[in-house]
Each structure stands twice: as C-alpha cells, then as structure tokens.
Amino acid sequence: MTGTKNGDGIMTLRNALARIGGNEDLNFLLTNRIPRRFATRLMGRIAPIEQPLIRKASLALWQLFCDVDLSDAADSRFRSLHHAFTRALKPGSRVPDPDPAVLASPSDAIVGACGRVEDGKLIQVKGMDYALADLLGDETLGAPYRDGMFVTLRLTAAMYHRFHAPHDLTVEEVRYISGDTWNVNPIALKRVERLFCRNERAPIRVRLERGGHEMLLVPVAAILVAGIRFTFADVGPHIREGGTRAIPLPGPVRMRKGEEMGWFEHGSTIILFAPDGFTLADGIETGVQIRAGQALMRLPS
User: Which of 80, 105, 107, 268 is catalytic?
Assistant: First the structure.
C-alpha cells in the first residue's frame, strides 16, 4: 500500500511539473530568467559530489523531473549525478549504420530543425533564422556550407549525452567560442533571437575519408553544467577557462564511424553541417526522435 501511495505521489508531482512545463511563459521564466551563469557554476559543483545523501537526492530529483531510462547504461550504480548524466552505454547499444553512403547521427536527439542553408542563413525555429557566420564567428569557416545542408540535434536532459563520429573521418580543427548559457529548449528558441549564436559552442571541422568531404559539427552548450568535453583533445579543468580560442590538437585525429568523440555535461545541441550534394535520410524531419548511429544524411552519389 505504501508503495502504491508513493507511486501515486510521484505521478501527481510529475503531472504538476508537466503543467508548469506546458506554461511557456512560466517555463521560460524558470529556466532562463534565473542568474544563468551562477546556476551553471553551482550545478557544476554539485553534480560531481559523491557524498551518499547528496548523490541520492540529486539523482532522485533528476529522474523525477526527466523520467530517465537507465536500462542501457553500462553501470547499474552511479557515484554521482555527473557520473549518471555522462554515462557510457552497454556495448552494442548504438551501432552505427554500416552503409558507407550514410552519415550517421552523432547523438541521441530530437531533430529541432533541418534542411538547406539558404545563402548562409538557416532556421532556428519556424519564422526565425540566424546567420551561419554569426554561429561560427568566421565567414571563411562557414563558406563551404552557405548552400549546404544542416540538421539541429537537440539533446534533452534525460538522454544519453555522449556524441560519436558520424562517419570515418579526420578531425582537422576545433575552436571554442565563449558565450552565454541560455536554455536551448523550443520555448527559449521561439523567444531569443540568434540563441545558438549567443551560447558557448565549439565548432569541429572534420574531413570524411569517403570522398574527402569537409563537414562541421557544432556542439552548443546550455544552462547548468554546460561543459563540452572531447576524447581527442584536452581542454583542461573546464573548456571555458581561457575564453575564445583554437583548441590544440596533437595533429590530425582519425576516427572510425561510431567512435566516441566527446560528451556534454548537461543537455544541449549539436548542429551538423554538410556541403551541397548531401541529402537528408528518409524520415528525418523536425520533431523526429533519433538515436546515435541512425541514418541522418546521405553522401553525394
């Protein structure tokens, strides 16, 4: 009976939270009009704490708010909220599409927007666009994609937060662009112009082995921990220390399709750019949920 009461109480609380989340004005107020940088630094200190009471409380709150599925996690017990949030998965959980003509999704995500870049501009949400040059802080870096294809992949707080190579490739350049920590949910995207151009982000320039095509992956951080980490580059204690800069690489870094490239320390977004000639894979459209490794685009014939 106690278990039933507890379950009913949790469902009641979740329903109340859902109603708050459904009120766009309140949602925006609660997730964006708080002191974003302070909240981000505070969560960055709390998330790694391994003290049992704090660990249990933070994990319980996260699972309550986000309805997290940890069934495919490699670990069954977690040292901290950070450990759970940046979890690895059981082997074979995200096998990349083996077709060499397919560009795989680098992450679990909801497709926030997708389509063609029109003369250097792309859609944030319906009725609101932004300039590729503003996102990248560099006209030259964005030049190959002025009329190419893009997909915006939004990672919710409940999702698996590691990202992977979409194809066999070489990482040639990584930049870090200092910025804000706005929430990147659809409610904020409808209210804050050029939001992705305001948040901290890290354009990654890669070259595919097949066809030698150049591509960009742009991880964009968000409120709370907001950290971006890479498996192929050391960014020190935190990526934002040192401000806008080029991230030093040990040289060109070769990676196989599906190999882990890095992870987010909180929910965020990856915007993927391909040059003209690439096409969206079947079924890829705004609002579709996708997993890492699934077909995202098709390479030119």
Answer: 268
CA 180 from centroid of its chain's CA atoms: 15
126 falls in which pLDDT band (50, 70, 90)?
confident
Does the active-site annotation cover 76? Answer: no
Decide if pLDDT at 8 tops 80.
Answer: no
Cα–Cα distance between 276 and 242 in angstroms, integer?
Answer: 35
Output the DSSP codes for 26-85. Answer: HHHHHHHSS-HHHHHHHHHHHTT---HHHHHHHHHHHHHHH----TTBS-SS-SSHHHHH
Concerning whether 108 is annotated as a catalytic residue, the answer is: yes
- Return the ∠ at Cα 204 (arms to 288 and 121), rounded to 5°: 60
Confidence at residue 9, expressed as pLDDT on a 0 to 100 scale: 45
How do residues 165-187 score in pLDDT, each as one tens digit? Answer: 999 999 999 999 998 877 788 88
Active site residue: 164, 167, 213, 266, which one?
164
- Whether 97 is catalytic is no
| List 80, 105, 108, 266, catalytic entry | 108
DSSP class of residue 143 equals G
Contact predicate 101/274, CB 8 Å: no
Q: What strands lie across the sheet with 279-280, from one edge to the other?
A: 102-104, 295-298, 279-280
Residue 20 to residue 61: CA distance in whole angstroms: 16
How many CA atoms lie less than 13 Å away from 279 in the CB half-sphere?
7
